[in-house]
Amino acid sequence: MYRILCDSYVLYDPRLPDLFILEPDLTQKKNEPGELTFTIPKEHPHYGVLEKLKSRIKVYRDDTLIWVGRAIEDERDLYENRKVVVEGTLAFLLDSILRPFAMDSTAADVWQYILTQHNVQVNSNQRLGIGNCDLTGSISIATKDYLSAWQIMKTCLIDSLGGYLIVRFDENENPVLDYLADVQDTSTQKIEFGENLIDLVMSKNASETFTACVPLGAALRDIDPESESDARLTIASVNEGQDFVKDSALVAEYGMIFAPSGLTTWDGITDPTILMNKGRDWLHGTGARFKQTIKLSAVDLHNADANVESFHFLDKVIVSCSTLCPEETYVLSELTVPLNNPASTGIVLGDSRPSLIGEEIRQNTSVKNRIETIESDYTTHGEIKEIVQEQLTQNTSILQSAQQIIMIALEDYVRTQDFVALQNTIQTSFSIMAGTIEANFTETASRISTLNGETSQQFESVRSFIRLISSGIVIGKSTSAIKLKLENDILYFFSGSEDSVTTDSAIAYFSSGKLYVNDVQVLSSLRIGSFAWVPESGNLNFKKIAG
After folding, report:
1. Handedness of CA 412, 414, 415, 418 (dihedral sign)
2. DSSP of 214-267, one letter per residue?
3. Residue 488: its pLDDT value, please?
């Protein structure tokens, strides 16, 4: 269960029908501030408490604070409903400006310096506590421009060293920033082929792969105070007159492919021997490798079974999907949660890592086909219809009641039922458009099935609807071939588009107390009242038989 607070005011709590907002969606991405969006109806009791930039919006999962941000956009429509966009805590680092500085120190010292300079410039509610930094090694920085703390941290640390910025909250709910080489927690829930995996993409990209490079060090005027040259230090003096290094074996196979100079320039290096070693290490480690990217999407089984641990942002997750991707651990790099419908949580696991040139990607066509086949059996995103505001005042109470009843029923079900039994998530949405009111009932069912001795979970989504149009009512179900339409004084049974149904195209229809069927086939006998007609063999004549 998720809750949203604006400072000390509750904006959303599924247990309290009056505290209702529309489409609250939280998106978190690796090394980004993240974003929360929602709409506050005019009838909300705390409609006016939110102030852009000043208010702090807090998201809780059960009783745990998981995200804090501030509103940066606040749109009001004709009916005075407020559509709000909230940016996460990391965006506070945009508020400060660091003067030009130079440092040659450890990554932890540079990171701490950036945070300290930020915190002394801003108010207390814009500060981030200095947490842990476990990145090792030295780094040289020399800035010439006035840059925000976020710009320097992103370009000088994250883009160069990698790692993860992790925001956590202390006992007073103040944000604390950690900068870690690797994430700490591993989810007990796995992602497995045939269980909860719905999509997989593997790729190896050679666009950033190089077989040679020109290492460049500090500017000569920075090395020798008497020099006025803007030229940079090279390795020619220690490399037999050549200013570049190459991988001869790879050059023979792929040709000379030089890396852009921006990737092999190190302002802090003033010794040519150190520069040559640095260039060789870079070429053999990062430059001469394919960039491998693996992205996965999966169903969070916690939404079907409360005993299964939920996925958390920046968890390590164990992935196993047959021969296409042997069991390995990846980081949950993106998480999108509809807070009023967590069963539709979207999960993306992504990792970019180098792989040696010459390594072949083993393609397994049958596995790919199986993945594409089961993709249609799963559902991760509930269909959310846009609520047009013309009828919002009249329908807000209906929406609140429907959401509340469904959530309570679902929580009770998950708490009391065995996971191996049929489990359903029912989502209800209402759409009010010009001349049309539509109610949708989307049921996502999960079953445990056994095939060839292996147990797997299968998902099925069925959508039913009742649509009120200006001329009548349409009733249908996504799995049914026949739908019902009541228009003026005619009741149609039809298939296909409701817009084109007529008395000629309908399967059957009632009108003026009579039933009309456009195509009748009698295979054995037809009985009306106390009489029956039986077709005589070999011809179309019918014999009347008294019942």
Report:
1. positive
2. --B-SBHHHH-TT----PBP-SGGGTTT---EE-HHHHHHH---BPPGGGGB-T
3. 76
Region for 424 from its dihedrals, namely left if φ exceeds 0, alpha if ψ lies in -120 to 50, beta otherwise? beta
Instruction: Find the DSSP H helices in 352-506.
Output: 365-375, 392-416
Question: In Å, what is the CA distance from 305 to each residue of 222, 418, 458, 529?
Answer: 63, 8, 14, 53
Question: CA-based Rg of the chain, rounded to a whole angstrom?
Answer: 32
Nearest to 88 by CA among 11, 35, 124, 166: 35
Whether this model's pTM surpasses 0.70: no
Q: Under a CB-based contact definition with an 8 Å cutoff, are residues 276 and 148 in contact?
A: no
Q: Residue 126: phi, psi to the nearest 5?
A: -110, 0
Closest listed residue to residue 176, CA positions, set 109, 125, 114, 127: 127
Mean pLDDT of 145-157: 91
Hey, what are 193's tokens?
């082929």
| Both structure tokens of 208 | 């950033």
For residue 369, what pLDDT band results from cuts at 50, 70 and 90?
A: very low
Which two structure tokens, joined as six digits, stand for 496? 């296909």
Query: Is the four-CA dihedral 158, 160, 162, 163 of positive or negative sign?
Result: negative
Residue 220: how many CA atoms within 13 Å on its side-chain side?
10
| Residue 118 in this model has a pLDDT that exceeds 80 | yes
In Å, how far are 257, 290, 322, 363, 398 from 360, measured between CA atoms? 20, 11, 17, 9, 57
**Nearest CA to 345 among 55, 25, 131, 96?**
25
What's the rounded Cα separation, in Å, for the pair 46 and 270?
A: 61
User: Smallest Cα–Cα separation from 439: which of 447, 431, 449, 427?
Assistant: 431
What are 89's two structure tokens? 């805590």
Give the three-state DSSP class for 322.
helix
HEC-encoded secondary structure of 336-388: EEECCCHHHCEEEEEEEEEEECCCCCCCCHHHHHHHHHHHCCCCCCCCCCCCC
Question: Among 202, 478, 170, 176, which Cα is nearest to 363's?
Answer: 202
